[in-house]
DNA sequence: ACGTTTACTGGAACCAGTCAAGAAAGCGAC
DNA sequence: GTCGCTTTCTTGACTGGTTCCAGTAAACGT
């Protein structure tokens, strides 16, 4: 898909601004970027953009479901434009890299807790933890502790 | 259950100290406490204990699997002594309160990603998000569950 | 009891993310 | 086109949760 960011923003009732377009375009081609990563990418395209603007765009777009935020424990948040389907994620314990995982099980059997303890559950989040290819093979990267 | 903390610590090759015992005992009776919460409880029993000591105990015990750390996005980490079984959690979006969820589905169908994208997956974490009983009823209750 | 090893104290630092005030830009009306 | 209201961006200080550091104190084997 990768629909026109302009359409998306308008559809969400948001103003069309350069930082917003740049953020959405960056995320479309670089899913699972961190805020800092997004900021870098946006600055490459636009010149100077404040970190705050990036956070603001990301938060605003998260609020209207144009982007989805993933917050893996122990790592900065990551963002993606693939919303709508509740796909899950694969996250590297070491470097925090994230990849999409479609849930195959038609009925999503894990989406219903056995007992909800009085909670009104509205979502189930699944994270598969492991080591990505880059992190498990070469221990020569300076961060070889783990 | 609730084995003697002394045994647990010795079994893990850790020294027996008052802060450690107090932390483990507190967690046994107050699962899903935050670090700050644990610190308060420990201080009630022991008098003065530094925040760092609490973090150190929690981290050390996490490392040897005497406690498990849960880090719900947007909320401080929570700790519990129920380790070994990979049960999941129910987390309140508003107050961060966490409850245990046993996974009923014998084969744990959600523990295998459809494609692992080159990752060596070692765990699947499931968080059910929602509102706890306290938070969804009264619209004025900001944050307090203890 | 002694010395070594490990843990605790207190303080400073860290990082991702947020808040606040003002300046600038978008966009609908004229 | 441009006026003016409103939203959004900039700058810069700030927070909360957690960790790092250096020094002191306590645990445990002998």
Automatic annotation (TrEMBL), chains A, B:
* Cofactor requirement: Zn(2+)
Query: GO molecular function terms here?
Result: DNA-binding transcription factor activity; transcription cis-regulatory region binding; zinc ion binding
Membrane-spanning intervals of the chain: none
What does the UniProt keyword field contain? Cytoplasm, DNA-binding, Iron, Metal-binding, Repressor, Transcription, Transcription regulation, Zinc
Sites where the protein binds Zn(2+): 92, 95, 132, 135
Q: Name one Pfam family in it.
A: FUR
Predominantly, its location class is cytoplasm
List the SUPFAM superfamilies: Winged helix' DNA-binding domain
Give compartment(s).
Cytoplasm
Q: Which InterPro entries match?
A: FUR, Fur_C, WH-like_DNA-bd_sf, WH_DNA-bd_sf
- The answer to keyword Ribosomal protein applying to this record is no
Read off the CDD domains from this record: Fur_like
What is one process in the GO biological process aspect for this record? negative regulation of DNA-templated transcription
As to how many cofactors bind and how, the note says: Binds 1 zinc ion per subunit.
Its Gene Ontology cellular component terms are: cytoplasm
Q: Which PANTHER family does this entry report, sorted A to Z?
A: TRANSCRIPTIONAL REGULATOR FURA, ZINC UPTAKE REGULATION PROTEIN
> So what family is this one in?
Belongs to the Fur family.
Name recorded for this polypeptide: Transcriptional repressor
Q: Which organism is it from?
A: Umezawaea endophytica
């Amino acid at each position: 898909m990768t629909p026109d960011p302009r359409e998306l923003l308008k559809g969400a009732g948001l103003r069309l601004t350069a930082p917003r377009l740049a953020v959405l375009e960056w995320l479309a081609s670089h899913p699972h970027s961190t805020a800092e990563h997004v900021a870098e990418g946006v600055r490459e395209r636009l010149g100077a953009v404040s970190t705050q603007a990036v956070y603001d765009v990301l938060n605003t777009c998260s609020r209207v479901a144009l982007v989805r935020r993933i917050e893996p424990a122990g790592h900065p948040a990551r963002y993606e434009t693939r919303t709508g389907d509740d796909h899950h994620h694969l996250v590297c314990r070491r470097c925090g890299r994230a990849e999409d995982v479609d849930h195959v099980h038609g009925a999503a059997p894990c989406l219903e807790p056995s007992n909800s303890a009085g909670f009104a559950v509205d979502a189930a989040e699944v994270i598969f933890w492991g080591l990505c290819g880059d992190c498990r093979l070469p221990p020569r990267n300076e961060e070889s502790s783990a």
